[in-house]
Amino acid sequence: xxxxxxxxxxxxxxxxxxxxxxxxxxxxxxxxxxxxxxxxxxxxxxxxxxxxxxxxxxxxxxxxxxxxxxxxxxxxxxxxxxxxxxxxxxxxxxxxxxxxxxxxxxxxxxxxxxxxxxxxxxxxxxxxxxxxxxxxxxxxxxxxxxxxxxxxxxxxxxxxxxxxxxxxxxxxxxxxxxxxxx
Length: 182
Hints:
The strands form 3 sheets. The chain has a 6-stranded antiparallel beta sheet, with no helix packed on it. The chain has 2 helices and 13 strands; from the N terminus they run E-E-E-E-H-E-E-E-E-E-E-E-E-E-H. By secondary structure, the chain is mostly beta strands. The chain has a single domain (2-177), classed as Jelly Rolls (Sandwich). The longest helix is centred in the N-terminal third of the chain and has 7 residues, at 32-38. A hairpin with a 2-residue loop joins strand 3 and strand 4 (24-26).
């Protein structure tokens, strides 16, 4: 496995070793022992999967403590632009983000620890995203930052008129109004 540290501490891009031959391929998307040896002790409690169409933008989402979540994100099929936004008040990179292309071909995974908001944009016709989380979903602790916050200056690489965004995500607040719980 290849591990790439990002400019934001604790955000990690993981490229698993893929064994391919004429029959297809094999790889371990997750190995608890290797993960804990290379990163941190973590207990993933739930796997989530979503399928979305081109132009669907989901996020920026996070859960407030005590239901905050770390995520290990991968794209099984298709391609997405995946972004993690640092919301840790004491971090030198508070309000900064990291972008990575995840797709079914590169098999990259993005480890997003607690204290970050997460968003992704589907770049292919459809995409299937899978992610492990280390805490259960708690709707009353759900929160977010609006994807179009001008202070973030994110280039999503797509015309805004081509985006498909839920009403919930259209009504998230700006980072400047957030009292970060992290």
